[in-house]
Structures are given as C-alpha cells and as structure tokens.
Amino acid sequence: MNHTLITGASSGIGKAIAWECAKRGMNLILVSLPGQELEAVARDLEVRYGIKTRYFETDLTKPDSPIHLFNETQSAGLDVNILINNAGVAGASYFDESSIEYIDERIQLNIRALVVLTRLYLPVLCKHETSHILNVSSLAAFFFIPYKSVYSASKAFVLSFSRSLSGEVKHRGVRISVVFPNGVQTNSSTGLRIKSHGRIGRWTQISADKVARCAVDGMLKNRFYIIPGFASHLLLFLRMILPVPVQQRLISREFVKEVSATCTHIRTA
Ligand SMILES: NC(=O)c1ccc[n+]([C@@H]2O[C@H](COP(=O)([O-])OP(=O)(O)OC[C@H]3O[C@@H](n4cnc5c(N)ncnc54)[C@H](OP(=O)(O)O)[C@@H]3O)[C@@H](O)[C@H]2O)c1
Questions:
Q1: In the chain, what are the domains?
Q2: Dihedrals φ, ψ of 259, to 5°?
Q3: Which tens digit of pLDDT belongs to each residue from 141-175?
Q4: Which residue's CA lies nearest to atom 45 of ligand 1?
Q5: E strands within 105-213?
Q6: Is 121 in the active site?
C-alpha cells in the first residue's frame, strides 16, 4: 500500500500538507518531534478521510534519526511513493552571537536530514512507476539575507540540491518539486517575525492552507518550482529588475527589524 511520508507534520505547513494529502485519499506516515500530539493529528485524519496513517516521533537533528526512521518504516512494511521533506527551523540572529547549537540545528535539520532521508528513500521511490519528492524551501532561497545567513543559505541548498538531483532521477520516474513559501503564520515565533516587517509582512504573508494546496497541486503536476502567492512572484520580479546593491540595502533594512524584534537585545551598530 502506497504511503506519503511527511516530516514536521504535527504543526504549521507540514500539518496543512498532511490535511491536503489526506483529502486526496493518500495514506500517510507522519513524522515530528516527540510529545507534539502527532497521534491526535493522525487519528483525526483517519476518521475524517478514511485513510491509513502511521506516525513516528523522532528528533531529525540527531545523526542516526533518519536511518532509524527509515528502518522502522521498512520493517513495518510501509511502502513510500511520496516523500515530503518539510521539517525545518528558521529564526533571525546576529551571526557572531549565534551559538554553535543554533547553527547546527539549522544545518542538521534543514540540510542533512533532508539529504539523508532523500538518499535512504530514493531506492524505494524508484521502484514505483512514478513517485514524488517535495522539498520545502523558502523564498529566502533566492535572496542573500543578513541575520538569516545560515537559514537562507540552507534553503538555497535545498533548491540547488533538488534541481541537481532531479536531472539524475527523472528518467527513473522520480519527480522532484520544491515549494518556496514566504511569511506563513505557523507559530508564535513566525507570527512575531511577520509582525516585525509591518505593512510589508502583512501584505506578503500567506496561510499554511494555501501553501499546502499549491504545494500538493504543483507536486502532482510535476512542477519543479512552486511559488505560492502573488506577492512572492512580485518579490521575485523585483529581484530581477533591481540592481544587487539596491536589493541588499533594502533587504538589510527590512531584516534588521526582524532580528531586533526577535532577539533579546538590540544592537545599535
Ligand atoms: N512559516 C514560514 O513563514 C515559512 C516560510 C518559508 C519556509 N518555511 C519552511 O516551512 C517548513 C515548515 O515550517 P513551519 O513554519 O510550518 O514550522 P513549524 O510550525 O515550526 O513546524 C515545523 C515542523 O517541523 C517539526 N520539527 C522541528 N524540529 C524538528 C526536529 N528536530 N525533528 C523532527 N521534526 C522537527 C516540528 O515538529 P514539532 O511540532 O514536534 O516541534 C513541526 O512539525 C520549514 O522547512 C520552514 O523553513 C516556513
């Protein structure tokens, strides 16, 4: 029986993607950190949509966690035909004050877990006539963002990795898609970040449900780039026409607001 595996499915965009997939009758394997009521999400979806669900609670930043997850799904006989790498952490901070743990978490979850899960599940996906990988990046992948240097670089990595790999696996029936959301109110921290951008934040934000709908639609239509929302398209257009130094000045001015709003202290220079 085919299953769609979704990481970070207990809340935010991942949970919205789980609902969107369940509506379309897909059986689900939901993954998130322990103690986040993942079981309740799984049961809710089963009752409402009559699908089969399994859930696994694991911290994907731990080096062995992706392989344990893979082994568990394999020994449970769960066949995966869609892999959705959604789990990720954002945040803004002064780089020289960021702890090594803060940096590692972004690299381990946003990059390593995504790459290792893709590597592990690829042979399983290749056994299907057609299968999908949907990676959740961010609009930040297209910009160089001060105070979010590790995050924006991690999301640019997701773009580059996915595009490169898609050329390698397309002929084996595996279609790769990447979704690039911008400003989704998913938890108190993203709420605070969006608020710090004032009118621009309010205007460019988009709901998790809309991102999920666009992402699943785009994936099933074999689109590589999935960019939900008009505002994001406009920002990408501005990126094409504005000279890089102007872009950098504007971005820097915008994101210093975010780091000031979310860090415990404000620097004056
Ligand atoms: N929100 C935005 O504005 C925005 C914009 C662009 C891109 N994105 C991307 O969209 C994705 C989802 O973001 P979101 O805003 O929906 O985040 P969220 O509400 O914080 O949800 C993140 C999900 O990932 C899980 N997760 C976090 N750390 C994990 C770990 N170490 N191991 C396993 N699972 C872990 C969380 O599980 P728990 O609930 O158990 O903690 C949760 O289910 C991320 O990749 C993010 O970078 C978000």
A1: 2-262 (3.40.50.720)
A2: -65, -35
A3: 999 999 999 999 999 999 999 999 999 999 999 99
A4: 88
A5: 131-136, 174-179
A6: no
